[in-house]
Design brief:
By secondary structure, the protein is mainly β. The chain has 2 helices and 17 strands.
């Protein structure tokens, strides 16, 4: 009898241990801090301690529970914060970077619900210099007009991402307005990518519906898919459409890339427009070279061509040229130091240089920024 009891206890303990092994919750994070210099912010130089020069500081919880048959329940709760003062990011949200739950199938892909990135960010952004493995936030296109730097996340979203089928993946997202006005402050996106040996290609589409810039209440639905305060550079609009595509090609220790994006903002007051429209065409070339397993450096150049409709006072269409350089050195698997430099030249009447992470707009058409810092992961 004792032998049977001992055997039963061993089986029960083994089963409990197996069940525990099939479920996991991981605490993870990243802290990025450094010193940044900008030569012109409103006419004056600026030196600042900066949180998130190349990657936003964050911590999060990632979990998975094995439900059997190749099916898992998954979730992510990810917080953004400033290491300078400990303040919450994303306008004071507890989990402002990501917050979602869903099901993942080995055969059919993953379906998630919550606050998430759109598919252009998931599929095209990794091929750009805005990728976290490259230069990230400082290398964004003006005003992050194509959202490749994911300055806007989407609330109330349902997203599907397929499995990898011989190098081909695809996905789609729909973010609800959560109001009786179904089309007000909603968004949807779709994208796909293909990888074959050294070549990776991706393309995607994103559309965001606002709530009427012509009434002065753009994104007034605070429970909708988009929070107005997250829209950078006052690029609010009735409708935003973005198409983006990119290519990466690896040659030994080097990776070369090209990204094109086209963004349209209809019904906007940006650039002094009165319910007008503006479109941006962004052309980017980039390259990263791995000198050693610990040291890599990258260069990128982006040209942004904008066209305004609905104004007679702004003058020539605004255009921006930006050159970026970065070097990253890994001290360990978790910790690295970096140095980066950016230069932007803007043209067009009344247009000024305004790099994404520089601390503010220049008083002229030129702006230079440099930063050194460290980044550690856990």
């Amino acid at each position: 009898m004792k032998k049977i009891s001992i055997a039963a206890a061993c089986v029960t303990a083994f089963a409990a241990a197996s069940a525990h092994a099939q479920s996991s919750v991981t605490l993870y994070g990243l802290i990025d801090a450094g010193i940044a210099y900008t030569n012109n912010v409103g006419g004056s130089g600026r030196v600042a301690l900066a949180s998130g020069n190349i990657s936003g500081s964050r911590f999060g919880l990632r979990g998975a529970e094995d439900l059997g048959g190749g099916l898992k329940a998954v979730f992510v709760l990810e917080n953004g914060f400033s290491v300078n003062n400990g303040a919450l990011g994303q306008n004071g949200r507890m989990f402002g970077r990501q917050a979602y739950v869903g099901l993942s199938s080995n055969a059919y892909g993953t379906l998630t619900m919550g606050r998430q990135y759109d598919d252009v960010v998931d599929f095209v952004s990794p091929l750009s210099a805005t990728a976290g493995t490259f230069g990230d936030s400082g290398f964004a296109h003006p005003y992050d007009n194509d959202n490749l730097q994911h300055s806007v996340r989407f609330n109330n979203s349902v997203k599907y991402t397929s499995q990898n089928y011989g190098g081909f993946k695809f996905g789609g997202m729909y973010a609800f307005s959560n109001s009786t006005e179904f089309a007000v402050s909603r968004a949807y996106s779709a994208a796909a990518s293909y990888n074959y040996g050294p070549l990776t290609a991706a393309a995607g589409y994103l559309q965001t519906n606002g709530s009427g810039a012509k009434t002065g209440t753009a994104f007034s639905n605070t429970s909708g898919a988009v929070d107005q305060a997250e829209v950078k550079g006052n690029l609010t609009s009735d409708v935003q459409r973005t198409v983006a595509a990119g290519l990466n090609y690896a040659i030994g220790p080097a990776v070369l890339g090209f990204v094109y994006s086209h963004s349209q903002y209809q019904g906007t007051s940006a650039f002094g427009l009165n319910n007008g429209s503006v479109r941006f065409d962004n052309y980017e070339v980039n390259g990263m070279y791995n000198f050693t397993p610990a040291l890599k450096a990258g260069l990128s150049y982006a040209y942004t061509d904008a066209h305004l409709n609905g104004t007679t006072s702004y003058g020539a269409d605004p255009k921006w040229n930006q050159v970026n350089a970065i070097a990253r050195y890994s001290l360990s698997k978790r910790t690295e130091i970096y140095g980066e430099a950016m230069y932007q030249h803007a043209t067009g009447n009344k247009n000024v240089a305004v790099m994404y992470n520089a601390g503010g707009a220049s008083s002229t058409g030129n702006q230079v920024m440099g930063a050194v810092g460290m980044l550690t992961r856990f």
